[in-house]
Each structure stands twice: as C-alpha cells, then as structure tokens.
Amino acid sequence: MRTQVGIIGAGPAGLMLAHMLHLEGIESVIIERSKREHVQNRLRAGVLEQGTVEMMRELGLGERIGQLGLEQHRIDFRFGGESHPIDFHEATGGRSAWVYPQHEVVKDLMAARTAAGAQMLFETPVTAIEGIDGTRPVVRFEKDGVAGELHCDFVVGCDGFRGISRRAIPAREGQVHDRIYPFGWLGILAEAPPATNEVTWGCHEDGFAMMSIRTPSVTRLYLQCEPDENPDHWSDDRIWSALHKRLDVPGLPPINEGRITQKGVTAMRSFLFEPMQHGRLFLAGDAAHIVPPTGAKGLNSAMADVKVLARALEQHYQRGSQDLLARYSKTCLKRMWLVQRFSAGLCTMVHSFAGDSSFVRRLQRADLDYMTGTTAGRLQFSENFTGLPIDA
Ligand code: RFL
C-alpha cells in the first residue's frame, strides 16, 4: 500500500488530521489497532475549547455540536462552604467552552471520513515504523494475522500515550518530562439531571470533586481517590455521600442522585515528550503529551497539534516549502508548555495532598481566592480555560 501521509491511530487527533488533509487534497491512510465500535464509543473528554468548536464548524463538522453541545459561560468553584463562580464569557469578552463529549466528536469525524470514502484500517495494530530518517518511511502492520506495509512520504503518530510511534524516535534524540500525581479520579456516570447547568468543582479538604453535564438527564461526576483505587471499594452510598460533602453548599441545590451506570478510576499525570518530530515522523496529541484532566485540555491540545501539522503539510505539498514542517515541534511545544503550566497549576490548586502542612493548605486556599476573587485571576483562568490561540 502507498499513500502520502500514514496516520497511526483513529482517535480525535488521527481522524481530524485525515479530515483536514482530505480537504486540502492530500491523501492519507489511518491504521487503528482497535475495533471501529470501540473507538467510537470510548467515553473520555467532555469539554471543548472555543477554538476546537470553531475549527469543527469551519471544517463542516459543527452541525451536531449546534444540536447537542451545551455552551458554557461560567464555571462554579466551591470551597469554604461557598460558591465562587467565574464567568469566563464575561472575563474574555465573549469566549465560551462547550460540553460535547469526545465520543460525539469521534462520531462526527468518522462520519465525515466515511462519507469521503477514506481509507481506514481497523483492528490493525501497527508493529513497527521504519525509515523515518530517509525519504520513504514504511509503517508495518498486522491485519487478520497477516503482515502488511504502508509506504508513505510522512508518518504521523496519533496513537495515544501507549502507542508505538514515540518509541520509534531514538532515545538519545528525545527527552521525557513528567510528573505523576499521588491521586486519581473515580469517575461515574449517573442517570440524574445535573443540579446546575454549569460545570461545578468542589475543592474540599477531603479531596477534589467535579460535576459535569452529559445530557439534560445524565451527569458525569468525579471524586479524588487513591491512584490505584479499586472502584469496587466505593459503594453507591459512599460515592454519593462524598460527592454531597465536597460539592454541596448552603443556598444552592444539592447534586442529584441517580442510578450509577459506569464507574472507573483514572490515574493523573503530566507528561511531555520533546521534540515532537524526528525525520519524517511527527507526533500529535496524547502520543506526545498528557495533561491531568483538571484543565480539560487533552483532546483540545490534540486538535491544536493537528491544526499546526495540517497547515505545514499543506505548505509542503502545495508550495514545496519545508518551513512550517521544520518548525512543527517548536510551534506546538511553545503552546503546549503553557497548557501544561495551566493544567498542572490547576491540578495542584484544587486537589488535597496528603501530608501537606497547614501553611501549604492556606497557600492553596489563597490561590483559589486570588483566582476567583480578582479581575486578573479570573482573566488568567478564563483565557486558559477557553483556549489559548493556536499559532498555526
Ligand atoms: P487517543 O484518543 O488515545 O487515540 C489513540 C488511538 O491510537 C490507537 N493505537 C494504535 N493503533 C494502531 N497501532 C498501534 N500500535 C496503536 N497504538 C494505539 C488507539 O487504539 C487509539 O484509538 O489519542 P488522541 O487522538 O491523541 O486523543 C487524545 C484524547 O483522547 C485525550 O487527550 C482526552 O480524552 C483527554 N481528556 C480530556 N481532554 C479534553 O480536551 N477535555 C476533557 O474534558 C477531557 N477529559 C480526558 C478527560 C481523558 C480522560 N481519561 C480517561 C484519560 C477525562 C478523562 C477521564
């Protein structure tokens, strides 16, 4: 098989890149290890930045966001027994965030790729990437137990944190930066109407909690827990009692309880691999970076990377220039470090760290007071939460 751009992984990064390249007349093939249904139904991210929504709309993918997406103007931080909302729409002069689940984004992208007759190989693990230092890289894969090859001009690793691409870059050429947090999130999906229309964060001495809207009758809730927590140790009663304690405040409706239909634990880490390119291999999305979910930046950052890369590939194929391709990693990393700063900073501010002294706890509280109680604090949060500009 031969194509111009070989893409590994059919997550949001791979699908969006293929869509953008197609609109510019550039051929690609996506190779994905999992089943199509698995990729399409995987429950993950829920909050989209304004830039991601604009990008989807500009690329003809905005119809269902218009129908199902919930535009958000405010976020409510609850601490010290009170509500401290930040109106990020007002603080930024009109920018928003949208609650629109990742599996819906993936569905929109899959539908567009299918309608365009795109080449997507599912249940096809990539086993090796070769020749990235030359001009004719090869992606080796296995389909139904039979080995296959994809010859291409460029390979893009959109294969997530546990993918194969990052490891194709020689160890001496790359550097890993990471931080593992001493807690995780127990996430549940409940058949209960959200208590309010805005995402609500509880910063409590027992630990962090979050309430987010999925649909008008389904709520997504998270609780800080041990990183290796067994979700079975959390009975429904224990979950609801912890959620009430961390999220409810006097004078506002308490969170609504309902049947819990899903339960799972997510570990929390910050991770960045640089550079995000080597020879003819480019990394995008979780393959290059992970952020703790606190800032809701993973999917959005994946979209930012592929916007930069699609533009660079377009410049290469249509104008014969390598400038943007050569700068890809540098361009993405500059923005990504700002995103890491925001996500790690917020993660540290809102969680409870066992063993922290009263001094550190009071500083944490002062950070929350500054962020929610001053114009500068609210603006800084709002600019980052609704999404920094993408320098494509
Ligand atoms: P993905 O989605 O992990 O897709 C990678 C794909 O590559 C495939 N693959 C391979 N295919 C072929 N051969 C191989 N050898 C392969 N190895 C791997 C995999 O099967 C998979 O299909 O990466 P991508 O595209 O970079 O997208 C990243 C996002 O999925 C991720 O950043 C977000 O889900 C993170 N995230 C959030 N991001 C946000 O922007 N806003 C949020 O509100 C938000 N909330 C979250 C989140 C992630 C969470 N979890 C579960 C980690 C909440 C949670 C709980």
Tell me about this structure.
- The protein has 392 residues and is α+β, with helices and mostly antiparallel strands.
- Helices cover 36% and strands 30% of the residues.
- The chain has twelve helices and 20 strands.
- It has helices at residues 12-23, 36-41, 50-58, 63-68, 88-91, 102-115, 236-247, 298-319, 323-326, 328-350, 358-373, 375-386; strands at 5-8, 28-31, 47-49, 70-72, 74-79, 82-87, 97-99, 119-121, 126-130, 138-143, 146-151, 154-157, 175-191, 199-204, 207-215, 218-225, 259-274, 277-278, 281-283, 289-290.
- The strands form four sheets. It has an eight-stranded mixed β-sheet with strand order 6-5-14-15-16-13-17-20. A six-stranded mixed β-sheet has the order 8-2-1-12-19-18, with helices on one face.
- A hairpin with a 7-residue loop joins strand 9 (126-130) and strand 10.
- Helix 8 packs antiparallel against helix 10.
- It is globular.
- It starts with a strand and ends in a 6-residue tail after the last helix.
- The model has no long low-confidence stretch (mean pLDDT 96).
- It binds 8-demethyl-8-dimethylamino-flavin-adenine-dinucleotide.
- Residues 8-14, 31-34, 39, 44-47, 102, 125-126, 158-160, 163-164, 187, 266, 285-286, 293, 296-300, 302 line the site of 8-demethyl-8-dimethylamino-flavin-adenine-dinucleotide.
Topology at a glance:
Elements (H helix, E strand, L loop, with lengths): L4 E4 L3 H12 L4 E4 L4 H6 L5 E3 H9 L4 H6 L1 E3 L1 E6 L2 E6 H4 L5 E3 L2 H14 L3 E3 L4 E5 L7 E6 L2 E6 L2 E4 L17 E17 L7 E6 L2 E9 L2 E8 L10 H12 L11 E16 L2 E2 L2 E3 L5 E2 L7 H22 L3 H4 L1 H23 L7 H16 L1 H12 L6
Parallel strand pairs: 1-2, 1-12, 2-8, 5-14, 12-19
Antiparallel strand pairs: 3-7, 4-7, 5-6, 9-10, 10-11, 13-16, 13-17, 14-15, 15-16, 17-20, 18-19
Helix pairs in contact: 1-6, 1-8, 8-10, 11-12
The structure holds 8-demethyl-8-dimethylamino-flavin-adenine-dinucleotide.
The site of 8-demethyl-8-dimethylamino-flavin-adenine-dinucleotide (RFL) has 35 residues, from α1 and α8.
